[in-house]
Amino acid sequence: MQNENRSSMKIAVCPGSFDPITKGHLDIIRRTAKLFERVIVLVSVNPAKTNFAFTIEERVDFIRRVTTDLDNVEVDSSDGLLADYLRAKGACAIVKGLRAVSDFEYEFQMSLANKVLNPEAETVIMTAAAENMYLGSSIVKQIASFGGDISNFVPECLLQEIQVRLSRK
Ligand code: ADP
């Protein structure tokens, strides 16, 4: 793949399933946008996960709608290797959010594997905000499926749509 970044711009990629995007994800995206010149939020396929509630197109659309105020953030999707995607875009960093202790083992392993696959790229681990420490897409899906209130967990402009969709399941 050709490197698309012809300038020396510092580009970060925030990868994830985002099924659906939560306030925890959005916090990491916003903070990344302050640190890097360009940020690509990448909806990627995690082979360890199945039974997605939303299609890739829906997840991309949700993220676009909640990041419209961030000029240096764009959204894309990929079903390939993250290390190759970074190389193709000329991105220098993968930014991941770290919650409690549960994410550590997995993120550490991914970071080491990605370093081997793409030594040019760094994985930057950002600590989750205290209020988002236990928040994840799975818990949002569970609560919503029982008709529970998810307004503390997902961006307000998506609340109605996500709630209706998930409670129908
Ligand atoms: P994945 O399938 O890669 O685990 P997720 O959509 O669950 O995708 O998460 C994407 C990224 O966002 C991961 O780095 C994850 O640790 C981070 N993340 C998820 N929830 C939160 C949260 N509440 N606060 C901060 N980071 C989070």
Keywords:
single chain; 169 residues; 6 helices; 5 strands; 18% strand; binds adenosine-5'-diphosphate
Question: Would you write up a description of this structure?
Answer:
By secondary structure, this protein is an alpha/beta fold. It has one domain: HUPs (Rossmann fold, 3-Layer(aba) Sandwich), CATH 3.40.50. The chain is 40% helix and 18% strand. It contains six helices and five strands. A five-stranded parallel β-sheet has the order 3-2-1-4-5, with helices on both faces. α2 links the parallel β2 and β3. It is globular, with a radius of gyration of 16 Å. The model has no long low-confidence stretch (mean pLDDT 93). The site of adenosine-5'-diphosphate (ADP) has 18 residues, from α1 and β4.
Give a quick summary of the entry.
The chain has helices spanning 23-35, 56-66, 82-89, 104-117, 137-145, 156-167; strands at 11-16, 38-44, 73-78, 93-98, 122-127.
